[in-house]
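Backbone geometry tokens:
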Amino acid sequence: MARRRCSLCEQAVYGYRDHLRSFHRLTADEVQFITALDRSGDGRKGTDCPICNEKMPVSLAAHLRSKHSLEGLALNVALSAAKRTRTLSLLDTFRGTGPTDTDEHPSTSGLDTGDRRIATPTQVSSKSATDAPLLTNVPPKGRLILPSRFKDTFVGKSIAEFASYHLRANPTAKDIVNGKQRESHAVRFLIHCAPKLCAYSDVSFVNHRKVRSWLEQLTSLGYADTSIKMLLYDAKAYMGYLSAFKPNSAGLTAKEFERIKLSFTKANRDIARNITGHRQRFKRFKLGIIPPCDHFRIFLAKAVKTIPRLLAKETPLRHSTMNLLQGFLMGTIAVISGHRSVVITNMLVEELENVEMLDSGCIIYVRTHKTNAAFGDAPVALSPKEISWLNCLVQAYEVKPRYVFETRGRQIRRPNTMLRAAWRRARLNGPIGFNLIRTAVSNQISSLPLDQRTNITTAMCHDPATAQRFYRDGLTGSQLLEARMNRLSALDSSRT
């Protein structure tokens, strides 16, 4: 399943309709209206210029090029902003609310943006140059902004060196993706500080006031507090790298570097108080959509019947058949073990061949995964029948693979797509993903005795403290009501 860019918030999301319903809280009719609008292209027709608000009888792109001299990234950002404003206006008309005369567009309320204010083009462009750059200089959300346009400048070279410095000696694919993300975050900060980045031979344009204005801009654009935290962290790390390795060529003094560092620290403190609440709200949302235990039992029963039938087909298997087979196998391992998807997709054929055979089952030890520094090899406990399924899967490939789970000769990159296909084949509805399965396992074992909980969390390479922060719910509703009664009882007992 490919990602699609949302017309309301500019995020690249999987499950566009589900995103409109859950995140923007649109009704079924409104979701149908937005998707029909995207297909027809009406959201781009009759669009006003986001900079001068001039009515567009001709192409908006031609107007932005000729009158405002926009090209490349700035042009794309302006077109996206104009389309979004037009889409929100049409949505208001569809609802029957009509446009308002207030500064904030009616559809940028909490109803459409998940309680996160998003600045309209007029609001952003009306700021002075010292506060923040114009909207046309704001990179769109959800995209990697890499320094390829100015790779021969000091900024481009220093960002590339910064990214390579943080890479391990033998980086995994995930490490490389994280490195690109770090580069993108640093470039976003620099573009905020100096929209015409190519014109500078150092970073003397950065100062401590720009850190605060960037925080204000990110908040106004609707970034979540956790996303802002990572943006600030990577931008601060880049400035720290310059301070340590390129202090003479960066164009900043030691005191200026220190002021910038203190400003980043203060910005992180400003958003820290909101992050805990954000995590709790997201955790409650996630706990509200995890599948019930009956769904997992149905899925396992369907997998036991479907996997042998798919393996019995004549090889080479069709691509769709192979995807379905792998979805059932990966889903079965995840439901049984509670492991992250990276443990399953990083499982090597060599590790399968070196499986440890015991009287009551088999153990595969996966070396490469997210928490191998804390837990070492990730143990995957399977039955002999499940091991035979994996061996048959490896034999079904046309060429002997390196990984147990591959597609078109490469390691699987999007295992959730295959899992969802298997989930639907089992006639189960609702969202599903490896992270949801792990969350469900963490909550289902919360009622077990402590020694059993510790045994399971250790086997799934899960720190109990991390599970409590990100996966398990706090006090239930009945426990909170019980706390209320206990408090009232304490009042009554204090009278005597």
Observations:
- The radius of gyration is 26 Å.
- The chain has three domains: 1-120, 144-289, 313-462.
- Confidence is low (pLDDT under 50) at residues 97-136.
